[in-house]
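Consider the tokenized backbone below.
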């Protein structure tokens, strides 16, 4: 492997992390990073003092271009849109799923300034070079973004063990369609997001309210009683307690739970097979 490839491969996981948090799509993130590799291979690398900073700048600019077309695509998306699920054994707190949804409401420049500064720790001087704005403008972009996403940061953190206990209890109650048990676990204003992308059955809108959500899970349990899917594993899904299942049609599904003060405030189920392919072979 060449020196250029060795340097790049060492940085690839971090670059994918940047691109994924910008785009919310693992496939798009991998495409952007591959494009960055081609630019890195063709660059005058002797003039690059800090390869990671250089490549992060390239990836961010490519993501900004990608976001312009992504916004158009999202307008035609069938049902609620959720980012591709990232499944990890341990809790990751920098960008959880609710925060990623909040980032969707920002302009591309606001999103980039916020992520580069607040998540990846870059200075506004470096961000200015990436975004083509002066440092004070980048500071304002990040400040506006921070105001928008502040409400989505966890207000009542729970221990990992307690979060997984609730995830396990919810899995059991939802599979049995136990409305009484679900009613004790769901916050009254719970929101249920189900992303099928028009390719698998899913709730066509964001459902709100404990009674409606509990009844929906009860109906699903009745319909699938003779051909239920199976639990693959409990895990953190985009930083939230949850689980992965393989449904009766053989396709994976992820479910993530936003838990506050011991109750489930939001449920995020990803069913779109296009968003789950990257998980195949990586779960154990």
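A designed sequence for it:
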């Amino acid at each position: 492997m060449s020196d250029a490839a060795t340097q790049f491969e060492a940085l690839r996981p971090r670059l994918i992390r940047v691109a994924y948090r910008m785009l919310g799509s693992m496939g798009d993130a991998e495409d952007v990073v591959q494009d960055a590799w081609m630019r890195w291979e063709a660059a005058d690398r002797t003039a690059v003092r800090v390869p990671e900073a250089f490549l992060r700048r390239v990836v961010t600019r490519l993501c900004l271009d990608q976001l312009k077309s992504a916004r158009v695509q999202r307008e035609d998306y069938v049902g609620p849109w959720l980012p591709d699920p990232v499944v990890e054994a341990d809790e990751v707190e920098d960008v959880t799923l609710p925060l990623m949804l909040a980032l969707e409401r920002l302009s591309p420049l606001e999103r980039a300034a916020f992520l580069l500064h607040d998540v990846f720790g870059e200075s506004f001087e470096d961000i200015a070079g990436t975004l083509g704005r002066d440092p004070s403008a980048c500071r304002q972009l990040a400040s506006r973004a921070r105001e928008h996403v502040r409400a989505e940061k966890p207000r009542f953190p729970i221990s990992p063990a307690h979060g997984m206990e609730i995830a396990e209890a919810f899995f059991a109650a939802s599979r049995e369609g136990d409305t009484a048990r679900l009613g004790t676990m769901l916050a009254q204003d719970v929101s249920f997001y189900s992303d099928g992308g028009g390719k698998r059955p899913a709730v066509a809108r964001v459902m709100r309210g404990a009674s409606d959500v509990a009844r929906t899970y009860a109906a699903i349990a009745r319909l699938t009683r003779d051909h239920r899917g199976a639990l693959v594993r409990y895990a953190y899904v985009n930083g939230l307690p949850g689980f992965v299942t393989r449904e009766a049609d053989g396709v994976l599904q992820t479910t993530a739970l936003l838990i506050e003060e011991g109750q489930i405030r939001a449920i995020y189920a990803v069913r779109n097979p296009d968003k789950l392919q990257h998980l195949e072979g990586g779960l154990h």
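The radius of gyration is 20 Å.
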